[in-house]
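Run: sequence + uracil -> complex structure.
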Amino acid sequence: MRIDKMLSTIGFGSRKEVKKLLKSGAVKIENVIVKDSSKHVDPTKEIVTVHGDAVVYKEFIYLMLNKPPGVISATEDSSQKTVIDLLEMDDAIYEPFPVGRLDKDTEGLLLLTNDGQLSHQLLSPKKHVPKIYFAVIEGVVTKEDIEEFKQGVILDDGYKTLPADLTILKEGISSDIEVTITEGKFHQVKRMFEAVGKRVVYLQRIQMGPLRLDRTLELGEYRELTEEEVELLRNANNKIEKG
Ligand code: URA
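>> structure
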């Protein structure tokens, strides 16, 4: 790729600013000063330095965010805080976007990436990627609800959901539950409970495909996925595709 594109992608300014930087002699490829903006570089093989510091280029970024309540799963909004507003500049420059949406009041696992292909595969309705949620439900969740979820419930718009796996973790006037769904209809978990006459009062996503929420992340914190986690996501997709 062109050196000016690489440097401007990772945050060294506009193409014009990068051109100036190159002209100043601050940029070296493999220890040789490069002043020509159109010079090509292979960032996976050649070491690029700016003012003597090596720069790291990556095409894709994969972030796991523990989404806090009160922020929306969008890349920009004129009035509300978005998940992208929670990112450091060094990560935001890669222009990641959320893979699917969590409601404003929902917490937990949200993957952010600029890898359109992986995102598409994870969200494709054909792939049925399982998503696991923890929820607190106002009302007593019963064995009948488990059975209804297993059969699929009819939502307010008449749509019958795919079978969902419901586990009761704590019974009482409010119940703690875990539910696994394999599709992503708007407000799906909340509407599934409405369909059986109950209300979700707290919702947290804890897993998407093979990717589990890292419990060491505080609300609003995020980290890059490990290479193993990215591989796991890709392989899970392949398996789902073949199966
Ligand atoms: N289901 C919901 O109702 N809300 C979410 O944020 C995610 C799944």
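>> summary
The domain at 3-54 is CATH 3.10.290.10 (Structural Genomics Hypothetical 15.5 Kd Protein In mrcA-pckA Intergenic Region; Chain A). The first strand starts at residue 27 and ends at 29.
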